[in-house]
UniProtKB/TrEMBL annotation:
PANTHER family: ETHYLENE RESPONSE SENSOR PROTEIN, TWO-COMPONENT SYSTEM SENSOR PROTEIN. The chain crosses the membrane at residues 190-209, 216-237, 249-271, 283-304, 316-334, 343-366, 372-392. SUPFAM superfamilies: ATPase domain of HSP90 chaperone/DNA topoisomerase II/histidine kinase (SSF55874). This is histidine kinase. Its EC number is 2.7.13.3. It comes from Candidatus Pseudobacter hemicellulosilyticus. It comes from the Bacteria. Residues 459-648 form the Histidine kinase domain.
Amino acid sequence: MFVPVPFLRKLLLVTLCWLTAHMASARDTLSVTPAMPNTALQSWLVGLEDHSRQLTPVQVLAGRDHMAPVHDLLQLEPTNHYWLYIPLRNTTDSAVAPILHFSSLTFVDAWLFVGDSLVLHRAAGAFRPAAELAPGDGRFHLSLPMQAGQQYNLLLKVWHTKHYHPTFDFALQSPLVYQQEHARRERLDAWAQGAMGIFLLYTLLSWLVSRFRPYLWLTFFIAGVALYGLSTGPYMIDWFYPDNPATGWVFNVLYLHLAQLGMYLLVIDFWSLRQFNPRLYRMGLGFATVLPVLSVASFSINYFTGNYNLMNNINLLAFLLPFSFVLLAIRVCWRRLDRAQRFLCYGMLLFVLGALLISGGSFFLREKALDFTPYIGHIATLSIFILFSTGLKEKQRQHELDRNAALAELNRLQHEQNLLLEKKVTERTLDLQQSNGQLRMQWDELGRRNAQIETLINELSHRVKNNLQLLYSLNSLQLPLVQDAAAQHVLRGNIARIRAMMLVNQKLYRPEADTAIPVEESVRELTGHLQQIYDAAHKVSIRQDIQADGVLAPKQLLSLAMILAELLTNSFKYAFGEIGEPVIDIRIRLERDQLQVLYADNGVGLPLDRTNSSSMGLPLVRDLVRQLQGSMEVRNEGGLAYHFRIPM
């Protein structure tokens, strides 16, 4: 049978087109299996950029034939919606649920279609609230359940609000393998964060115990790096901001600034820049004061605009400050640093190296650098801690050696000082023994002299007493024999004066002469004796108010007794001729370093021309007051009154 050539050509062309289409369809469809390894979807995905942000999943799925490979997307605006498409087929005879995972993207929606029919919608993303996540899904992974032998159309919508160009690093992986890798990452994070927590607690307790400030600054540094690691991972957001993760992300850079602050203060304090290099010290403080301004600016940009890309660029430029400060400090201070301080220098070099790696990764990889940045920070921080602790141990060891040497020197000096003191004590003891011997001899000599003086005083007192007693007895014996009234008057006055002197002498030279002189007792005995002489019937009432015991010297007491004897004698003899109730008041008290003596009677008084008379003992009273350097006032109203002021 003859077949025309044109027909054969047409049949061959149709067959070739069918085979080409079938092969293309088989190549563009990704096969999913239960043991599927980690498979990147970059080469399978096609997509488009939605400038209007108004397209629906159905509209996009209908126009999937017009999508371009993702590596050809221009990404004119990073915050536009990006739609990605990939066909999937479960080539096994059992249901599978592969894990779709990615990194960094803020909002991701996944729709799974069978043909044009929607069978599944899942949501994920760094800023996705926990309430919008399906059970078992996370912010950076979601599950895609697929039936046996079924083909699906997977449609993804990416909305990345951080102003970075989105990275479509989607990958499919079997649940078992993903869970194993995820658990391994969590264990690594737990070890790193646990070590950071232990070192943080150690440095904080070390500062509380020792009050050594570099421990506090190292605490700031470790706390900043540890918090940054927690906040860039899912942990801090899941703990504190599960329903508002975008708020949790705005604090990330602030923790880095806290670490930088600790680094500045640690270098300034531990290397004693204030003392040895004031210019570098002021530079470090100036850079440290920039951090609050940078923190406020970064927080404001993140919170109000969400432009993390701009914030990252600003902080990359600001990283030049700690780089330059640390390198300049190492260059300037290296020669004078001791061994302990140089250990921190090695740690700072590691800090610079880690910061360069982080900055370079952030500059070239942008958000992808967040996958390894915390680990670099942890390694650098732990290295700094270990080196700093080693330096402190070395410094403490050197300090212990210096302290022991100083103690040995102090012990030597103390031993020499003790020998010198013992020598001086021995010499001083000999001097004191000689002085004590001389004092003992002088004391014995004074004792002998005092005994002689006491004997002489006793002899003198005895003779004065005998003479006064003799005069008193002679005058008393002579008084009854004298018939003349004037002579009797003179004798009685003499007897009164002698008796006053006898009483005072008796008080002054009594056996207990070392005690205070009893003024009141002396005055009462004197008034009683004179009243017995002149007023045996006790017609005159004598009122006494004396508050001056122990304040009078012997000479003052003798003069006071003579004054009172003269005044009492005058009152008894002349004042109460016609008075029905005669009274004498005697008041003695100490006021403001003056002895106030008030003597008064209610007698007839004296005419004015007789107050200055030379009779009746008044001149003697004035002489006695003058001897005492005192003053006297006389009042002649309603009796006679005397007011004496005697300085003490």
